[in-house]
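Consider the following input, taken from an annotated entry for EamA family transporter (Rothia koreensis).
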Amino acid sequence: MSLTERIPRRHRGTTALIAVLIGSTGIQTTSAVATTLFEKFSPVSVSGLRMTTAAVVLLLIARPKFWRFTRRDWLSVVSYGVVSSLMNVFFYLAVDRIPLGVAVTIEYLGAFAVAMFGVRKFKDGLFAVGALAGVVLIAGPTFGSTDLLGYVFAVMAAASMTGYTLLSGKIGSGTEATAGIRGLSVSIAIGAIMWSPATALALPHMTVGDWGIAVFIGAVGLALAFSCDAFAATMTNPAVVGVFFSLDPVVSSLVGLALLGELLSASAYIGIALIVLSGAAVTWRANRSAAVITTHTEALQVIRTAQMPQTPRE
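Applying the prediction step yields:
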């Protein structure tokens, strides 16, 4: 029995939220650390180093038997590897040119699109819009950069995040060969290979300190964070996870306050409140829906059992 199956349906929404929070904390913390390498290396090289160290960590832990992958498995891991690596590279290119808050906000539009595509009820759409409004309020005061290319990179990161959000649930729920983090480890390795030329340019100039940062941002900001995102997607659906990803700007703001002493504006705190309320509402509805499904399934099992012909006693 997989870890997903061991968690009761009524608790899976909360579990997914916690997983996204852990992943978001890892991503935002390591993003602040990764910018220190931009003075020596290009954002593409830093992203390549991040994926390479993450791939090594994941492959050592998962030890996937890729020769057992089916054609569908390979399609899944390659698609996820390409999309996630593009999202990383475009995001780092954007952060190098425009404020972090702006880059995070624009990138979130990709997850927001998935959340809106998955809307089945008007209330769910309102929660997604509420989360988006919160993100805009957090990043609003930072808008003002005139670097058009930075905005282009951020939009491309958002487009990649759309695919990332949709594929996260499939990467850990395929066949036994790709279950857990096995498929994820191969996907990240594929992404690392894609950008290996840029990584190779940085290697001759790496110091012990640089390697320490590379391992940290790879292990925590990618291996751990992406594993949490993939797990969260198996707990619920891409639309719900898309709303949960709105927590990224919240976590980014809190990390900035804790590590950099950056005070937030009043509108930013209102935005945080909006996102927290929207996320709480979505979590509650996800748990409630799961509980209803569980109750319905159990009722059907009782009815079927009652309708089964009884074996007469001898």
